[in-house]
Amino acid sequence: MEEKEKKSGLSTASMVLGIIAICMCFIPILNYVSIILGILSIIFGLIGIVKNAGRGKAIAGFVLGVISVIIVYNMYFAVGKALKEVSDTIDDATGTSSSSSTKSEETKNISMGETITGKDVEISIESANFNQKVEPPTKPMFYNYYQVDDSSNTYLYIVLNCKNTSTIDLETSSVANVTAKYNNNYSYSSFSAIPDDTLGFTYTSLKNIKPLTSQKIYYLMEMPKSIADETDTPVEVNIKVDNTTYVYKYR
User: How far is CA 112 from CA 42, 173, 209, in A?
Assistant: First the structure.
């Protein structure tokens, strides 16, 4: 009997805590306490329901606890969302968006042979061509090349001459990000490779550029062969270095 009364007391406590939690959940700052009371109400209510002691009070306390926790969560979620919208509005008005790296990006046109000057590198476009088979400038003993698997496709490949102007080794994989756009609607990403005296080509991740030395890097973009055949429409090659995108119009 005493044990049953103890369990029934938990059910009563659950209901009381649930009522207090509901009353406090609308009050700023105090609703932090409401979350704790709501959770305790849920726990005590579950015990009362499972033990079937003061079941009605336990169910009421459990429901009130759940509702109070949901209300507080939604309130703070809504406040956080509203503050972010206000912050974004202020940023847009002042031109100081939190994504300042995106806002500060520049776009410049560039021509063949012109030098791109980055923080740690100088780059110039050496050549750009369409071909279904891209071969290295020399054919060593262990010769490899890149060839499209689908005969209806081709590669647009651009060769960049890259000089490391920093005082430490420069990772060739981080020199530039190259993409292509056709007719302002169709975009193509690239993969890069380095001509190698032994292998023909090797991965950019396997080689660094020494300070004050230069390295040629091939960037290959696979696209439909019909783009190569359409000579009247230029292909826009975008070379991103640091926070600037340099646009080279091929053809």
Answer: 70, 22, 22
